[in-house]
User: Fold this.
Amino acid sequence: MALAIGAGVFVAGQLRAQDGPKSVWDGVYTEAQAERGKAAYTQSCVFCHGPDLAGTGEAKPVAGPEFLSSWNGLSVGELLDRTRTTMPQQQPASLDRAAYADILAYMLKFNGFPAGQTELAQRSEFLTGVRIDAFKPEAPKLAASAADAFAHDAAENAPAPNSQPNPYATDTGFFKLPVGRTMGSSSAVGVDSKGHVWVFDRCGVNSCAGSKLDPVMEFDAKGNFLKAFGAGLFNFPHGLFIDAKDHVWLADNRVEGGKGAQVFEFDATGKRLRALGKAGISAEGPDTFAEPNAVLVAPNGAIFVADGHSSGKGPARIVKFDASGRFVKAWGVRGPGAGQLEVPHALAMDSKGRLFVADRWNNRVVIFNQDGKLLDIWSQFGRPSGVFIDRNDVLYVADSESREATGYGHNPGWKRGLRIGSARTGKVEAFIPDTAADAEQQATSGAEGITADGRGAIYGAQVLQKAVARYAKPP
Assistant:
C-alpha cells in the first residue's frame, strides 16, 4: 500500500505532485469541487474578500490583476498554505482541509483557470509542483503570416519604445472635490462639448458596492466641481463615453446585489434615459453582458460595447447595437491570433469610422470596421488599457500595466505611461511616463482611462493612485 501511494499519480481522486511539474492551466480541480468551494467561500470568506473576490478594507484581493501578479510563479501548495493560515480572518485554520481545498478550487475557477477531471489535493505538500502562471504557458504567438498581413509600416519603422519626447507637465491636483470627498480609483474620464470633464469614480475607494456616494462627477474646464449623481446605481464603474448630444454613457462591470453588468445612458442632468443588458445578470448573450468594459456611440447612432474583463474565461467580444438599442451582431473570440481578442478593455473611433479596440492582454490595439472586419493590428502603443481619438485623429493610449516581469502585464521593453500619436499613420509622437516608483511591483499604475479636451489638455484616470491627472504643455 505504501509503495502504491508513493508511486501513484492519483489517490482518492486527488491530484498528486508526483505527476511532475504542472500548471494551473492543466485542469487541477473539478467543477464540482469549485461549486463546493463557492458555498464554503460564501459562508466563511465573503465578508472580508467580497463576492467578487476583490477584497475589502485590509483584506487583499484573491482574484484579478493584483492577486495574479503577486502569486505568479509560486505554487498552488504555497497558496493553499496561505489560505489556510489566514482565512477566515477571525479564526484561521478553523475549517477542515477539504473546505480549504474546495475554496482554493473556487478561487482558481474565478481567476479563469480551467477545471479538469481530478480534484485538488487537500494537503499542500502534494501541490508544490503545480505552478501558478498568470498567462497560459502554451498560448501560441500570433502567426507570422497573420502578423505580416497586418504589420504596419509605422510599427516596423517606429523609434525604440519609450524614446519619444514628453512635452507635457502633469497636474494631479487639478480637480477640486467637495469638502470631505476624496477621489477613488477610476478607469474612466471624458470631456463634453462645453469642455466640462466627467469622471466615473469608484466611490472614493475601488468599488461602489454598498456605497452611498455619487460616482459620476462633473467638473468645469478649470477643475471646479459642478455636480454628481448615481449613488446606489453601480457596483464597479468602468467605462464612460460622451456622445454628440452630451449624453453620458456608463458601463458597470460587475454583478452584485441584483445589479451590474449593464450599460446606461444619462442626459447631462443625470436623468437616466435607457439601459442595455439585464440588471444583475452576467451572461454572454444578445441582450446581456458578462463584464462590460467600455461603450462607444458612433456618429450614426450605432452603439458598441466591449465585453469581457477576465482572461481565460467568459467572452472577449465586441457587441453592436443599432441606434434604438436593438442587437445587431457580436464578434470576437478569446485568443492571440489575428482577429481574436483577450480582454477588450476600451474603444475609440477615428474620422473614418474605424473602431479601435484596446486588446489589453494581447499588448496591442486592434482596428476593425464597424461590421467586425479586421483592418490592422498595432503594437507600437504598448499594452493598452485606455484609448481615445480626438477630432483631428490624434490617438491617445494609456498603458497602465506593461512590465518586465513574467506573468501579468508581461510586455518586455515597454514602460507604463501615455502614448500620443496618429490614428492615421500609427506613428507614436510623444510619451508621458508613469511616475510610480514601484511600477514593476504593481499590477497597475498610472492612467488607465484617457481622454483629451481638444484644447491641448489630456486627462488620465488612475486606479492605483486614486486620482485623475491633467497633462498639458507649458505655455
In short: The chain has two domains: 8-131, 144-472. Residues 1-13, 138-145 have pLDDT under 50 and may be disordered.
